[in-house]
């Protein structure tokens, strides 16, 4: 029998690069907050049983969202860094659903598709190894020198843009994150913690339009992609 799947969404960030009056996950997008679109997309998948969202304790925006009262959505306290917020969600999950797969997804990635989530789940259940969605690098990659000039061109073969969701067995992910934090390892995503621990992680090719809203121009792109999907 397959393990239940619970989505964990770290949403305690402030998104300073957006230069907006509120964190990017609360910016309006087609009549709803970005975070609402993201959670709704996750809950649309038939295998995702619930969503655990890590929110800052003093966050005034989340309670105002319609999605906040959804019985399949649980709010937990977020942490200072992404890994802390994910770990908070996993700790709640350990009490409610000890044996589960944790589908960790960025709060500001509202364009995720059901098909990509299915591909990710199928990979993990077939190979019994955690996996991430990623898109192959298309552009010529340059590494810069400290001066700001080009140092050299990076061969783009086998280079990927890491995306989310990232799917791992929840208990193992919590253990690896906890160990990495104790060792003060820089954790940029869940896969990086597994890499540090020497554990294998598979790559599943995902759609390049599964963008993360980071800069102001990303919001217009997300509006376009979401409108095209409907």
Distinctive features:
Spore Coat Polysaccharide Biosynthesis Protein SpsA, Chain A; 6 helices; alpha/beta; seven-stranded mixed beta sheet; globular; 230 residues; two-stranded antiparallel ribbon; 11 strands
Task: Give the CATH H-level superfamily.
Answer: Spore Coat Polysaccharide Biosynthesis Protein SpsA, Chain A
Sheet with the most strands: spatial strand order? 5-4-1-6-10-7-11
Which structural class do you get from the secondary structure elements? alpha/beta
CATH T-level fold name:
Spore Coat Polysaccharide Biosynthesis Protein SpsA, Chain A
Report on the structure:
The protein is α/β, with parallel strands linked by helices. The protein contains six helices and eleven strands. The protein has one domain: Spore Coat Polysaccharide Biosynthesis Protein SpsA, Chain A. The protein is 32% helix and 24% strand. A seven-stranded mixed sheet has the order 5-4-1-6-10-7-11, with helices on both faces. A two-stranded antiparallel ribbon has the order 2-3. It has a two-stranded antiparallel ribbon with strand order 8-9. The longest helix is centred in the middle third of the chain and has 15 residues. The chain is globular and about 50 Å long. It starts with a strand and ends with a helix. The mean pLDDT is 94.
């Amino acid at each position: 029998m397959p393990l239940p799947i619970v989505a964990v969404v770290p949403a305690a960030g402030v998104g300073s690069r957006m230069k907006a009056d509120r964190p990017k996950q609360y910016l309006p997008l087609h009549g709803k907050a970005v975070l609402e679109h993201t959670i709704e997309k996750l809950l649309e998948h038939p295998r995702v049983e619930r969503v655990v969202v890590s929110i800052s304790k003093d966050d005034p925006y989340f309670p105002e969202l319609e999605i906040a009262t959804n019985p399949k959505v649980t709010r937990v306290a977020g942490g200072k860094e992404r890994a802390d917020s994910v770990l908070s969600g996993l700790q709640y999950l350990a009490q409610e659903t000890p044996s589960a797969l944790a589908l960790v997804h960025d709060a500001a990635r509202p364009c995720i598709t059901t098909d990509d989530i299915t591909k990710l789940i199928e990979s993990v259940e077939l190979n019994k190894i955690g996996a991430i969605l990623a898109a192959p690098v298309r552009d010529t990659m340059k590494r810069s020198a400290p001066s700001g000039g080009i140092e050299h061109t990076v061969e783009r073969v086998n280079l990927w843009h890491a995306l989310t969701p990232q799917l791992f067995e929840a208990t193992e992910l919590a253990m690896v994150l906890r160990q990495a934090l104790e060792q003060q390892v820089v954790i940029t995503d869940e896969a990086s913690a597994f890499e540090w621990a020497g554990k294998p992680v598979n790559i599943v090719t995902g759609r390049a339009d599964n963008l993360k809203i980071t800069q102001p121009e990303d919001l217009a792109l997300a509006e376009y992609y979401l409108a095209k999907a409907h």
